[in-house]
Amino acid sequence: MKVVILAGGYGTRISEESYLKPKPMIEIGEFPILVHIMKYYSHFGFNDFIICCGYKSFLIKEYFSNYYLHRSDVTFDFSAKNKITIHNNAAEPWKVTLVDTGLNTMTGGRIKRVEKYLEGERFLMTYGDGVCDLDINKLVEFHNINKKTATLTAIQPGGRFGVLNINNNNLIESFEEKKKEDGGWVNGGFMVLEPEIFSLLKDDSTILERDPLEKLAKHNQLAAYKHYGFWQCMDTQRDKHQLEQLWTSGKAPWKIW
């Protein structure tokens, strides 16, 4: 399965760094959080990525165009007609497709724009600013068993996200606006989507988390995989510092590669 990662937003809530680069390119430790996410998926055998770019997309393209070079030991021999020798292959077993999905395109619209690269197949999808210790293979297995159009990972982060109402069959019945919830389940990304999702994605203005997912929930076609472990997004500078501390301490739960 291919992995679609949304990496095109402005990242205004972490503007201390996002004014220079897209939020997914903000570093945690030695490389961008986007690469952390890709390495995580790769650990489970998913190595074919489609990155939905937007804001400052050229920086993401430049990063990956030089990824192999930057991750390897290199000798530049200028006395031998500019000979370049790569001493080790430190690159990843990845195929990375970078797609400019527009500067102001919404989440559903970005996914719609990469439909042709998915070739009618089921795919994985997540946001380019969150990490977790989810077992992705178990997520996919859960999706296969439930046979719904979409499965999202439900997490319990606290009180600043929209709430999901989940019934006893692990189906999402409705969404509620953001409020201070008590143990409420919220959308943590890390989704499995069937190609039927594209019939609900109209244009660039489509917000995946609104009309498309709400319609699926109404028709019992949206399942929730409850994740009780670690999950953290990087919305703000405070979030970034928390992730950085986990990384530098050697206790990052998502560091499984």
Quickly list its features.
alpha/beta, 257 residues, 27% helix, Spore Coat Polysaccharide Biosynthesis Protein SpsA, Chain A, 9 helices
Radius of gyration: 19 Å
Give the domain tally.
1
Structural class: alpha/beta
Overall mean pLDDT: 92
Uncertain residue segments: none
Let me know the largest β-sheet. 8 strands, mixed
Tell me what you see in this structure:
27% of the residues lie in helices and 26% in strands. With 257 residues, the protein is an alpha/beta fold. The protein has one domain: Spore Coat Polysaccharide Biosynthesis Protein SpsA, Chain A (Alpha-Beta Complex). The strands form five sheets. Strands 1, 4, 7, 8, 10, 13, 14 and 15 form an eight-stranded mixed beta sheet that branches. A two-stranded antiparallel sheet has the order 2-3. Strand 2 and strand 3 form a beta hairpin. The radius of gyration is 19 Å and the shape is globular. The two termini are 19 Å apart. This is Glucose-1-phosphate cytidylyltransferase.
Blueprint of the fold:
Elements: E1 2-7, H1 15-18, E2 27-28, E3 31-32, H2 33-43, E4 48-53, H3 57-65, H4 67-70, E5 74-77, E6 83-86, E7 95-100, H5 107-113, H6 115-118, E8 123-127, E9 130-132, H7 136-146, E10 150-155, E11 163-166, E12 172-176, E13 186-187, E14 191-193, H8 211-218, E15 222-226, E16 231-233, H9 237-248
Parallel strand pairs: 1-4, 1-8, 4-7, 10-15
Antiparallel strand pairs: 2-3, 5-6, 8-14, 9-16, 10-13, 10-14, 11-12
Keywords: Nucleotidyltransferase, Transferase
Organism: Endomicrobium proavitum
InterPro entries: G1P_cyt_trans (IPR046981), G1P_cyt_trans-like (IPR013446), NTP_transferase_dom (IPR005835), Nucleotide-diphossugar_trans (IPR029044)
